Amino acid sequence: MQTKTFSVIDADGLILGRMASIVAKRLLKGEKIAIVNTEKAVLSGKRISKVREAKEFLEVGAPKRGPFHYRKPDRIVRKTVRGMLPYRQPNGKMAYKRLKTYIGVPEELKTHKPETLKEAQAKKLVCPYFTVGELAREIGWNPEG
User: Fold this and answer.
1) Is the predicted pLDDT of residue 31 greater than 60, yes or no?
2) pTM of the full structure
């Protein structure tokens, strides 16, 4: 049985992978989810090595055939959640369609109270970390244009 609830999750200060796995489970249960402030989600690890990994990954594939590499933070977060879903199967495709991601907080969601995921807080991290927005800028995202 699928429930038709709607949640707004604020990604500010949440670890990307942990948040994505929790969101994926909730999407598979039938929940509609909007993730706001995606540029403020956190990646753990040293910035230099993660940026190098991302730039090497950008060299893989062809622009028309794929794999397709996104540079906007909302698309990076969306694709991370997709990696946690069985998106090639019908229930995974339907779950993926119930996900919306946004940079900042759009006008239509300002009335909703965003929730945070306590188990994915970056405060627990003792290693170095940086935000998805910083990674996106390093690999070619221009926030102004």
Assistant:
1) yes
2) 0.92
81: domain range?
Answer: 6-138
Is residue 30 in some structural domain? yes
- Token pair of 126 as six digits: 């003792």
Average pLDDT over residues 76-96: 97
What percent helix, strand, coil does the chain show, rounded to 5? 45, 15, 40
CA distances from 3 to 28, 36, 90 (A): 10, 22, 17
Residue at 59 is within a domain = yes
The CATH number assigned to the domain holding 26 equals 3.90.1180.10
Q: Give the pLDDT score at 66.
A: 86
Residue indicated by tokens 């188990």: 119
Within the chain, residue ranges assigned H as helices are 16-28, 47-58, 73-83, 90-97, 132-138
Torsion of CA 23, 24, 30, 34, to 10 degrees: 40
